[in-house]
Amino acid sequence: MTLLKRYVVRMFISLKYITANVVDRNNGRIVASASSVENALKSTLECKRTCNAKAAAVVGEVLAMRLRVEGLENGQGRGIHVDVGKEIERKGLQNRTKVWAIVNALKNNGVKLVLENV
């Protein structure tokens, strides 16, 4: 069974860290992931702040690069789906700038996104 929304972006935002994954809904596998927990990302952030809008943008850029390496920046022609309204609702209104920072970083780095509930 093939799903129309095969690839989806999932975000996890805590008080300390930000993680973004792209999940293949056909088999539930994470195809690409980026997190501010990673030492390579932590070292590039100013003052080691791993959970602000700048850190979210860096996580989005790294995720976009990893999607390009996997050859999935177009989501196999259908795009990668992001339900922005649902992500903001789940993460809380105070984290909306972080959610949008990740989405904008993905778009600016050439990932074909299909935005829902904007």
TrEMBL record:
Belongs to the universal ribosomal protein uL18 family. Coiled coil: none annotated. PANTHER family: 39S RIBOSOMAL PROTEIN L18, MITOCHONDRIAL, OS09G0549700 PROTEIN. Keywords: Ribonucleoprotein, Ribosomal protein. The lineage of its organism: Eukaryota, Viridiplantae, Streptophyta, Embryophyta, Tracheophyta. The keyword Cell division does not apply. This is Ribosomal L18p/L5e family protein. It comes from Striga hermonthica. It comes from the Eukaryota. GO terms for cellular component: ribonucleoprotein complex; ribosome. GO terms for molecular function: 5S rRNA binding; structural constituent of ribosome. GO terms for biological process: translation. It holds the Pfam family Ribosomal_L18p.
